[in-house]
Hints:
The protein is of the alpha/beta class. The protein has helices at residues 76-79, 103-110, 127-137, 149-157, 166-182, 201-214, 229-243, 263-275, 307-314, 317-328, 337-341, 362-369, 375-385, 399-407, and strands spanning 3-12, 21-28, 31-35, 43-48, 53-54, 58-60, 83-88, 142-148, 186-190, 217-221, 247-249, 280-284, 289-293, 346-350, 391-395, 411-413.
Amino acid sequence: MKMDLAIRNGFIFDGAGNPAVKTDIGIRDGYIVRIGRIGETEAERTIDAKGLAVCPGFIDMHNHVDNGVLAFPSVESYIMQGVTTSVTGNCGASMAPLDDESMELSRRYLAPFVPSSERIDWKWRTNAEYMKTIEANGTAQNLAFLVGQGTLRIAVKGFSPSAADDCEMSRMKSLLRNALDDGCFGLSSGLIYPPGSFTEERELLELAGELARCGALYATHLRNEGNFLAESVAEAIEIGRRWNIPVQLSHHKAVGRPNWGKIHHTLRMMEEARREGVDVCCDAYPYTAASTTVTSLLPPFALEGGVEATLQRLRNSNERFRMAEEIRSKGCEWENWISGAGMENIYIGDCARRPEVEGKHLQEIVAAYYSGREMLEGLFDFLAEVECLAKMIVFAIDENDVKAVLAHPLSCVASDSWAS
């Protein structure tokens, strides 16, 4: 049998932890058909892997490839590193399902994460339709989709902070059932981002009941990775315990110097939960910084109603005063990046409307471009000017914590990145 491709003389790692074996791999019609010595004339094409490692494609357990795969179908930022499968739709933000009435809210919600979104037609509504759109456009990766709890909530009740009533809950559960039937592997939540941040534990538990129907996964960006880290881990574990479903703690970390070291306690919480029968694991990225949208700098009330409502508040002096008071408050329960990291440790990583601020921290930006303004007032000016369309990089994680999580047997490495 003539093979299409032979990879010869490489050190083969099988992915099961066994020692590397120096041998050949034969491929035909896209499948591995032989592992062992292959003659020089037995394949149409040969790659000499002498001195190189050959292994199965890597799986990235947490990323946001679904937001950019239509713009970057070759996904070179992943493929060139050997990442052939991405688990995506994380942090409560998936590209489907969409609702006609709340479509614009969804687009603005996802805009900071979607490259060249103006070139995307947004014609799909269901998860199945989005998967077909990707297939028609082509992709170099295998994709495993999660459906975002935030996306579900926008489709049903926009950015309202109120608790979901029975009718709204029923509709969200129906959308989740359809997404799972369409092929999604589970539900993700992003409980620091609106509208996930408006969600009570009761809502999450009801949605988790739908996951239990088919043994699907619950992956969560915890409600608080700072001052209330342990309480947030306990909430996620309880959801898994209540419905006997697998739980994945996304990019597990402790944010803010006062919380460094807490990660050892939360890892012990996971170990104890597993001894009690809860299937809980985590992933982590190998960075001492986090990256997200600049709207996360604002208190939850400022984000009610969606991006346009937030921009109106940023232009209102009374609302600015209220936002500043809450940011300065010592006892706030929301994840306060400015309090936890300091403006000097928060950098703008991407800002198409003001590219000159990229790579500068917030203190630098206010001093250079909003001189004479108090720090928070200057920050609000900047956010209003760029309409909150910017991403930030926050240095607030201890390297020893990162090492502890990555070395733990219940953890795996993830990128938390986008396609490019």
